[in-house]
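[recover] target loaded
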């Protein structure tokens, strides 16, 4: 049969994690912690698993969890939302992104994405008959060039996809970015999809959620993931906050993509968030220590870098080490010959620029980071 996604193969995350496993390399490629979520959270899951909460959850999510999300959004971003009608719990942020795009993108629509872009956006746009319009983030700080966005907007522009803190670069949106975005979309029908899965891993100043701005929130799907916040990426539980009209359309897809999300884990998350509301407030400090340690350990080496402003990823420039090697070759070489796996950055671009960058995940134990840095500093 003809393929609907001719450009799609196996994701770079699968490829590099497999290569790392085959060669016994330290895996700093695919983004996931090598430590577990909080014990109190794991205990709550066990409790619900053992007490008969193993059937379908409500379609839009367990109410206690939606209440906890609404409370957090109000406390952190000053945004009052109705948990009944404006919050949907999903099977990971991946499902939420797919459902948001599918709910509103029609054949012929254009969707603006910023490169390097997380890999799941474009296939969802294409499957719905839309076209991704790729705009490069501006080196060296990977900021959005708003004048370029203004030029790219036309009658077909249906949506702009934002991602802050940004994977893979670690850049973050500033309050002035939100001003510029607001000025551009005011008086238009453009919708926003804001991928904020790293909202609690923001190092310099507070996270600039779109939910802070009523004029942006009124046209936005804001997506997050409990996998990143509670060190449980394998659970695949996320959520989408959007105004009633958008949530209504969003749920039409959600109910037929998955219908509902894993029940006992939603109940456990609700309990944990209520019992330990300060947990996510400690996350920036927790990951900043890891970022600082990794950067400190890498200083004697030949990689060049500027510490990430958010996420648990650190970009490193290897121009002084293997200037002739493209980044995919370098990442494979690093995995098989040096024993540390990384993600090449060019795979997240439509037209990769001339740069020599790989991404390392520092959501690892201090010992793992020490061992990896020791190998990386030897080359
Ligand atoms: N968006 C970004 C930017 C991510 O890094 C990830 C994590 N891989 C996701 C979405 C997907 O999150 P989840 O694992 O909850 O589906
Ligand atoms: N978001 C994770 C990363 O950026 C990978 C998720 C996946 O494997 N699809 O590394």
């Amino acid at each position: 049969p003809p393929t609907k996604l001719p450009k799609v193969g196996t994701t770079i995350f699968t490829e590099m994690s497999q290569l790392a496993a085959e060669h016994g390399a330290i895996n700093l490629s695919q983004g996931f912690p090598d430590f577990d979520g909080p014990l109190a959270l794991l205990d709550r899951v066990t409790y619900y698993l053992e007490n008969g909460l193993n059937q379908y959850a409500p379609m839009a999510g367990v109410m206690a969890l939606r209440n906890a999300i609404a409370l957090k959004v109000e406390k952190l971003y000053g945004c009052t939302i109705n948990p009944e009608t404006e919050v949907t719990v999903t099977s990971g942020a991946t499902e939420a992104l797919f459902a948001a795009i599918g709910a509103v993108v029609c054949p012929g629509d254009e969707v603006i994405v910023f490169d390097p872009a997380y890999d799941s956006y474009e296939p969802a746009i294409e499957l719905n008959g839309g076209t991704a319009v790729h705009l490069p983030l501006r080196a060296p700080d990977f900021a959005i060039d708003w004048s370029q966005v203004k030029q790219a907007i036309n009658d077909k522009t249906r949506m702009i996809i934002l991602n802050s803190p940004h994977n893979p670069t670690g850049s973050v949106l500033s309050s002035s970015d939100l001003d510029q975005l607001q000025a551009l979309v005011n008086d238009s029908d453009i919708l926003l999809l804001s991928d904020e899965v790293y909202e609690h891993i923001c190092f310099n100043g507070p996270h600039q959620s779109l939910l802070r701005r009523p004029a942006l929130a009124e046209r936005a799907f804001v997506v997050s993931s409990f996998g990143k916040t509670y060190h449980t990426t394998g659970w695949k539980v996320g959520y989408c906050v959007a105004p009633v009209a958008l949530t209504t359309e969003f749920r039409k897809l959600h109910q037929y993509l998955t219908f509902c999300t894993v029940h006992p884990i939603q109940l456990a998350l609700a309990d944990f968030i209520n019992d330990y509301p300060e947990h996510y407030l400690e996350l920036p400090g927790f990951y900043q220590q890891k970022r600082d340690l990794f950067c400190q350990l890498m200083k004697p080496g030949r990689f060049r870098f500027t510490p990430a402003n958010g996420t648990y990823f650190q970009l490193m420039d290897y121009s002084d080490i293997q200037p002739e090697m493209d980044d995919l070759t370098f990442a494979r070489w690093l995995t098989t010959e040096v024993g540390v796996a990384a993600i090449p950055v060019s795979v997240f671009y439509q037209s990769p620029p001339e740069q020599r960058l790989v991404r390392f995940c520092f959501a690892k134990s201090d010992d793992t980071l020490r061992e990896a840095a020791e190998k990386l500093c030897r080359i």
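[recover] notes: The pocket of 4'-deoxy-4'-aminopyridoxal-5'-phosphate (ligand 1) is lined by residues 31, 92-94, 118, 163, 167, 195, 197, 225, 227, 233, 236, 238 (CB under 6 Å).
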